[in-house]
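Late entry, written up from scratch paper. The run itself happened at the end of the previous shift, but nothing got recorded in the book at the time, so transcribing now.
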Amino acid sequence: VTDPACPRTIVCTDAAVTPTNCIPGDPATTDPVTGQCDSDRNGIGDHCQVAGASPACANLDSDFDLVPQYDVNALKKAAGLNDYDGDTIPNISDNCPTFANFDQKDIDVNGLGDACQILNGSVQADPDLDGVPTWDLATNAIDNCPDVPNPNQEDNDGDGVGNACVIAKALDNCPTVLNLDQGDTDGDGVGNACANPPPDLLIPNPGDGLVTLLAGDGSGFLHPPTASPLDLLPGATAAVTGHFSLDCIFSACFSSNAADIAVATRGAAAGSADDGVTVFIGNNLGSFVRQPAAPAAGDPNGLTVLVNQPTCALPGDPVTPGLRHDPDGTSDLLAVTEPGASEIRILLGSNMNVLDSSRSPLVPPTGHPAPLPAPADLRTVTSLDLNRDSLVDLVAVAGPPGGPTRLQIYMGLGNGLFYTDPTLDPDVIDDELDLPQPGFININADSLYPEIAFFSRVDQAPFTLFNVLTDRVDIDRSGRVDGFDVVALAHAFGATRGEDFVVQSDGTLQQTGTGWARVVVGSGTRPPGQDLKAVGDCGTPPLLLTGAYGLPVDINLDGIVDGIDLALLASRFGDRLP
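Output as recorded:
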């Protein structure tokens, strides 16, 4: 698509995108077999390339696997015609179009270049295992794509080079998922990482112990893939997809691009310890391998996935030194809602199942393995980035049927760690709130910080809680943003929370003092698992608490009292607050 400005990524399957330089039905600008737009007739549909894009937009690689969505330099031309092997001889007249042979040597004068045949050989080679030999000794025919499986030998433009080779050379076969190996087992041009995407819908049935998987086909219909249903899951209450395991070769572990499934199950006795979370590791081929369950408690009834949260690959676990998390520095976290125990269990993907085959890949965070305490009558948990620091936070929703509802906020720290503080929680709400959904709702007043919409069971209507993070500028809670708040902020300016904080059993940070003068207490040493990537690079020397750091003066709760806090205070200076 001619798009010099390259304002957005063009998705191959986006039927709504109409190329500006393709005339439907015109043989000069469309594929001769399918009729799809191919205005430069290079064998790659216009929707999969950005023709004529500016240099800044060329070779886009949105999944960062070093394979461009469309490699603008991959497909060569000679005399204005396609030249797949780059030997300056167009495919249509090249006696060996799939292997470069500038001299066009043909010793036996059989019309097939020597580069494409195995001279003096008696065994037919088929390296891509598609049933078509690279050179057929009997018929003198060649595989028009010898390195990529294409048993049907599709060649839409009839130039001797199979569609499969053209596509494989120029396109990332799975542009939305990191797949350096470009694996494509069935040779259909769609990489394994995208050929079997994770299910779109998972339906647990606690009665029969099944989890039904449904995948969309792009037309609005859902179909069960071959792996559906997952069975032997009595008491299954929740199921989600994410990346909860690693690909390991001995002690070397790598990110997995396959989607896994996690299923929460509750035991026979209410609130008992026979609950668990079972991971099914995906392989991008449509099947899953069951792993031993990670322990849970309190009749878990919900799983919340926190995607790509900062996590150090080497947690320094004192009990299991070989424990590893995702080497790319981010992990999907699981927050398990456990109402029977009034707690939230945090689990991270790891290599634990490789170290010990009797263990689950899901492990609690090394820095604080105990579950987070939650209010009684815990209903559900939702996640959002309340303060926009790129660390996802948790909100526990609790209360008896009919109300009232109490919310408890846990701020994310990285490495699977969270903390709470009574000053962060909103007032008790005289209603039964359920079905929380975060989003940017009050955009007229604030487009930076997200809110949460609920469904009121009492009024049978929506109920919204606005984000009032910026009201924290009233540091001393006097009801007015004034000079005292400025002085309090100035006194702590530059102070940092560091990595030596202490998360107590009730989920709060260890602090001293009262009111606006409360400050966090540092231990002086960084505990294992608190090497926070959000603070510094993993493996760097410990960053300890500095200055008079306290939650009241860290207005945006990002771990440092800085110019952002000062700017927030200045923007509200003189305001009266309720």
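The longest helix spans residues 483-492.
(Scratch paper discarded after transcription.)
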